[in-house]
Amino acid sequence: MEKTMYAKFPKMQAINRRGFVQKLREYKKHPFSLLTYLLVCIAALLTVGVLLSLIVYVLVRGIPALDLEMFSLEYTSDNQSMLPAIINTLTVVIVTLLFAVPIGVFSAIYMTEYAKRGSKLVKLVRMTTETLSGIPSIVYGLFGAIFFNGVLGWGYSLLSGVCTLAIMILPVIMRTTEESLIAVPDTFREGSFGLGAGRLRTVFKIVLPSAAPGILSGIILSIGSIIGEAAALIYTAGTVTGIAESVMDPGRTLAIHMYAQTNEGWYEEQAFATAVVLLAFSLLMNALSGLLVKKLGNKEMK
Amino acid sequence: MKSNIKENVMHGVFLIAACVSIFAVAMICIFLFTSGIPAMFKAGIFDNFLFSGEWHPLNDEFGILPMILGSIYITAGAILIGVPIGILCASFLAKFCPNWLYKILKPAINLLAGIPSIVYGFFGVTVIVPIIRDLFGGSGKSILTASILLGIMILPTIISTTESAMRAVPTTYYEGALALGATHERAVFKTIMPAAKSGILAGVVLGIGRAIGETMAVVMVAGNKTTFATSIFDGIRTMTSNIVLEMGYAQDLHREVLIATGVALFVFILMINVSFNLLKERGSRAEKRSRKKIAANSKE
Fold first, then answer.
1. Over 90: is that where the pLDDT of B175 sits?
2. Which end of chain A has fewer CB atoms surrounding its CB within 10 Å, N or C?
3. Considering the domain boundaries, does residue B270 fall inside one?
4. Shortest alpha-carbon distance between residue A76 and chain B (Å)
5. Looking at residue B99, what is its pLDDT?
6. What angle do the packed helices A158-183 and A120-134 form, to 10 degrees?
7. Which of A122, A259, A290 shows the shortest C-beta gap to B107?
8. How far is the alpha carbon of B266 from chain A, nearest alpha carbon, in Å?
9. What pTM was computed for the model?
10. A231: chain B residues, CB-CB within 8 Å
């Protein structure tokens, strides 16, 4: 409503706009408002300041600590190489996505395209995904250690870490997919049905492609959380330093590598270097998902 | 006919996929509870687990009361620090900042949410801990340190929920307040904020959930003492850090008791979830009511 009104009467917006002198006069009369305004600005500055200082501090101390030895294939306690951990992280990310993305996307398809309105099952699924997204990662780790490592007998292995993480990111993928499926206009579906396409064809040829950027941005966000996850992996995938040759082998990811380095106490410089790499990954993932969301927004504008 | 079969099969596949999350929650509950609850009774649920302050696993003493209190203290501290800053910052984003600045700030807040908790923890150890040590003495690893760090970590959660709650309030509220002679600040904090109250509260509850479940960052800065804390400069251990610190070498009953600690944590989280849902429901009901009222008024 607001937008259309402003579009009709462009000058309407100017009513709420005040010049600097006017503001100053107002604040003189209402010192409490000035105080509130200052507090709000301080809070915003503080938030941005914390973020900037964290990033700058890690980069300033970490980049000089990086050296080529840290990227050698073999880990020794001397070179503190993080390459094995990086390779393990990539394996974990890929296999976790292989499990979680189909399940997450399919269940979102069921919830939006197939289920009847107000179905009991949908309510139950929604409730359970909300529960899942509230469970702390250490509880996932405990469950993984009990079930995948113990009951199924996989022991410390990338596979048990992967399965634990797949459950953990499932709600994120489901929610983002559902949101982007709902955002696809119904006219698309009606057009497809009208041309004689079945429900399945409509979903895969019409609805999914138009929802793809949104789904992708959700997937990228969950890649970020997989890379940064340590609590759920430490007792499922283990802390072994080498490259895992199969998914049944144990192996540490980058986040666990960093935890181990800080825990042991005398590798602070190397931990800074690992932090730089971790931070770079999360910056990259954030930028990518932001770009996708922006692309989605532009498309909608057209 | 053939395509009909395909349709039905895929319908089944989608249905099964939708049931996976139900299955996962059921499995998590079953396995946690069946391994945790017997251990609670074996150790003595009230006198040697929930309400005991003595944690000496080697002597079969498993009192987790200090850790439960530790989780509560640190979460409360994080809320005290994070919520005011978060709400103020959200109102800056929603109602104060110019458009060009918003385009920079919003991604920055998203980034704050994307930084791994282990990096936060490391930042806490190398920056916040020395500052606290210099200012107040002691080791620097304390309730206060952990509260500050967690307060920072829950900021993005609180900011994004508060911001969207404030943006959902109809602009007529704001304009009405301005027309009555209120300043911009007064209009924002006296009309928009109360109208967005339930959304903001839901964000705070979400933040509580995140703070109480945080593990890696807390382990690094909270000091991990198993005794009762006497001041905010004391070190303390939370339920999450108790699990992560001792699970690596725990055996038999000790291991089961750690799982039981996880169960206690899980119960806390479930309670938080239920209150979150209640708040959200109440919020959407209140919103509907006010929408109806506005619609009725505008008809007249």
1. no
2. C
3. yes
4. 22
5. 86
6. 130
7. A290
8. 7
9. 0.89
10. 117, 215-216, 240, 244
- Using CA atoms, how far residue B36 sits from A14, A139, A161, B30, B242, in Å, is 63, 12, 21, 10, 15
CA nearest to B258, candidates A21, A141, A68:
A141
Which residue intervals of chain A bear CATH 1.10.3720.10? 71-301
Residue B140 and residue B129 in contact, taking contact as beta carbons nearer than 8 Å: yes
Q: Which of B261, B236, B240 is nearest to B146 (CA)?
A: B236
Q: Which of residues 62-101 of A touch B (CB under 8 A)?
A: none
Supply the DSSP symbol for A77.
T
- CB–CB contact A138 B240 (8 Å): yes
Structural domain span for residue B97 = 49-299
Q: What is the dihedral angle through the alpha carbons of A171, B259, B152, A96, rounded to the nearest 10 degrees? A: -40
- For residue A53, give how far its alpha carbon lies from the nearest alpha carbon of chain B (Å): 10
| Domain presence at residue B208 | yes
Q: pLDDT tens for residues B43-85?
A: 777 778 888 778 888 888 888 899 999 999 999 999 999 999 9
Q: What does the alpha-carbon distance between residue A104 and residue A167 come to, in Å, rounded to a whole number?
A: 10
Is residue B16, in this structure, part of any structural domain at all? Answer: no
| Contact call for B270 and A50, based on CB within 8 A | no
The CATH number of A71-301 is which of 1.10.3720.10, 1.10.443.10, 3.20.20.30, 3.30.160.20? 1.10.3720.10
* Tens-digit pLDDT profile for residues B203-233: 898 899 999 999 999 999 988 888 888 888 8
Q: Residue A83 corresponds to which tokens in the numbers above?
A: 């390459």
Query: Mean per-residue pLDDT for B121-143?
Result: 89
Q: B94 and B166 in contact (C-beta within 8 Å)?
A: yes
